[in-house]
Each structure stands twice: as C-alpha cells, then as structure tokens.
Please model this.
Amino acid sequence: MTTNPIGDRPDLLADIRSRFAHVDECPFEGPRIFFENAGGALTLNSVVDTSAKFAAIPDNQGRINGASKALVEIINKAKDDVKTLFNAQGGSVFVGESGTELLFRVIRDACLGAPAGGTVVGSTVEHPASRSAAARWAEQSGREHVLIAHSDTEGRVTADAYADTVTADTRVATILHTSPVTGMGMDLPAIVAAIRAKSPDCFIIVDGIQHASHGHIDLKAAPVDAYVISPYKVFSRHGYGIAWVSDRLSALPHDALIGGPSGNWELGTRDTGAYATMSDVVGYFEWLGEQVSDATEPRARIEAAAAAIHAHEHALTDAMLYGTGNLTGLSEMDGVTIVGGVDNPAREGLVSFHSATKPSAQIVEELEGEGIRVHIRKADHYSGNILTPLGMDDCIRVSLCHYNSLSEVASFLEAVKRIL
Model:
C-alpha cells in the first residue's frame, strides 16, 4: 500500500468522486469546492437512488405478503451492516429522528435506569447534543453532572483526564469521539478503558456523529453501551439518526409499546429506505477497502478503507496548514490562529482558523464568492465551549473528506491569500 493510496492514485480519486452527488457543483449556485463536510457530507449517488426507490413502495413491515417480507429482510440486513461498520458484538441497532434525538433518548434511559446516586460524567469539549441531555437527565435523576475540562490548546480531552475524574460511583459517562469545531479525535479505547477501570458497570454513551465519515469505528476495542451517528454526515441523507445500544442498556426500562417485542426501541413504523441507505454506506466503505487492499472480509475491508481515508485527509490538512507547491499554508499567514494548534496528531480532516486582520463572516462570504464553501462557527451554544476560552468570538471551519483533492486545497489557499 502506498503512503496515501487515494491521493497517490488519480484514477481512484476520480472513481471515488464519481460516486457522490454534487461533488464539484452546487445545484443552486453552480461550480464550487465543498469544504463544509462537517455540516453534512456529500451524498452517495446510490443513496439518492435507494431513497427514491423506497419512497415509492406503499407496503409496511409485518404483513403477510412478499413485499412486506422483503422490507423486513432489508431492515435486518442494514442492522447487521451497521454492526459490521461499528465492529459491534450483539446489541441492537435502530433509527430515530436524528443523532441528537437519539443521544437524548439513550442518555435519558441510562440516567433513569442506572442505580441510584453517583455522578454523570462528561467533558467540556462535547457538542451540546450530549452535554444538554446529560445535564438535564443528571438533574432529573438526582445526580451531579461533572464536566471534565478539555485542553484549550489541543482541542480535545484525554483518557488521563477521565481517569482523574471518574469514581467508583460514576453511573453514566458521555464521550465525544471527534469534535466538529476543533476537528480533534479522542482516544476512545483509552478513555473507555480508563472509565471501566474505575467504574466497570458505568453506562458509556458516545457521540460519534462527527467521527463517522472518517471510517474507523471499533466498538470491540472500545466496549461502550451506546454509539450514535447522523447518517447525513456519513454519505447518507437527512431525516434520521442511527444508534447502536448494548444488550444491558436495552434491558433497562425505555419507551416501548405495551405488549410489544422485548427490548424493542422503535416507536411506530420506520422508513425502510433509511435503513437501506445505511447498507449503501457500508457497501461503499467495503468497496473502497477493496480498492486499497487485498482484504476479502467485510470488516477487514472497512478497516482498510478507514486507514486510506485517514492517510488522504491527513495529507490534505497538512497541505492546508503548511502549504503545497509554492503556496503558503494557513499556519504561515500573518494574523492567523489555528484552533487546536498546528501540529496536532489528533486532527481528523478539519481545520478551524481565525484571522486577526479580517472578520470571519467576511472571509466566509468572500470564499463563497470564489466558489469555495466553508462555514463560520460562532461562540454560541454550539461552539462557545471551544471558542470562548480561546478569546475568539468566531472562527472559520474548513472541513474536508476523502473525496476532496489536493488541487481543491490549493485553490482554497490561493483564495485565502487574496482575501487576507
């Protein structure tokens, strides 16, 4: 395998890009470079086709006919595919309104179902989806919500920080796998091990929403009780979230129909098309793994795809930070500050920066005028936990994915140089 099997093979990158809708043009504004992947990744063409196919099917699950039986089989296959993607042993997979809604549900049920007393532990790096849910349900269940301070300079929280805070009576712990503001990934296996060493029976809930598009989820290495993603951030579409929960979390009381199947989490008839599009996503990861390795088993191919994705995104963010060809990188531009630091090995396909010479909103607007889509993050309820301690009112978030190219990064650097 080459150092960067995607970036070093133009034919493969072209093949990858051909599988995504609107990869290089906006359906409303025309040609553009898409560096807003953390706000929602591009959608696989197969997902678009699958969504249309199932939107036209009138049948429901649970009927005595061939169509209904086929729908159930499609749903069950998708659940198995998600378990393969997560490398999850046992447990249950189900869809909900969104990743945020599912985090609220599983955190609520963990807090209400755990033994009385103790604490709920999280960190200040977390997205408000998990922080808000943990704060509410810690209070409702009569527990203290303890927040571990993340490193402002590194943009992440460590296993040691969890080890210093978790105690034997910590009942529920929440973890953010990757920050959508700093772009830094947490060492999930190490954090889980640190929690389990202090409180073996703690219910551990993970927000994997930002991390999922980067490919590597391994719940065998990190035995948690719930892992939640938003499919629109991992090449599927809006309108649903996906959760995996452990068998012991499923055994706790949770919302369910009286007399319904034991352990069931779904409320009402679900969209078969939503499940089917997750099979498309998992199938894509397997296809990519086949292109960059000799792996034959689905999980091994997914792991190979994740490694290739990491290598390519690392090359792209390095180019963005340090420059490419004769172009100056962001880290060398006057007045530019990189959130989370420049040389940070935890970075996953995302660079957030602030300029002392021009307002962030103006930079975002001028980049849009150059056909480059990025996003402003403000010190509000979404990002204030990251930006306020840094003394920043806002920043520009540039989020990449493995279908982005070095030439797109070069165009971005040229544009930023002109703007600043």
Summary: The chain has two domains: 10-43+298-419, 49-283. The mean pLDDT is 95.
